[in-house]
Amino acid sequence: MKRLPRETLKKYKEEFARVLRDTAKSPKLFQEALIDFYTPGEYDELAIRWQIVKLLSRGESHREIADKLKIGIGTVARGSRELRNPKGGFNLILKGNKAKS
Predict the structure, then answer these.
(1) In terms of Cα–Cα distance, which of 66, 69, 88 is closest to 77?
(2) Residue 26, CA distances (Å) to 9, 17, 63 in order
(3) pTM of the prediction?
(4) What rounded mean pLDDT belongs to the chain?
(5) Quick one: 53 exposed, middle or buried, by C-beta within 10 A (0-12, 13-18, 19+)?
(6) Termini Cα distance of the chain
(7) CATH for 39-101 (1.10.10, 2.40.128, 3.90.25, 3.90.550)
């Protein structure tokens, strides 16, 4: 399968991020955009990934999370790896949410 050049993909990702930022100004529009951008399965997986990150940040074990969300340990481990990056998006979001609480 042919792939687009990395620079082209980078531009597409930047544009996509800009579109999401702009639509986020309207909760209804943002919700509709998510439904259109993702298949139902992809949207479910994103929602579950966020739950994994939240539960990990609260100190729940991989096994507890896997059992609670009915997913594999490997899926939880991916979220755990992402949280190891203190400057990563998940940590920035979690810090922002704590500041609002």
Answers:
(1) 66
(2) 27, 15, 37
(3) 0.79
(4) 91
(5) buried
(6) 47
(7) 1.10.10
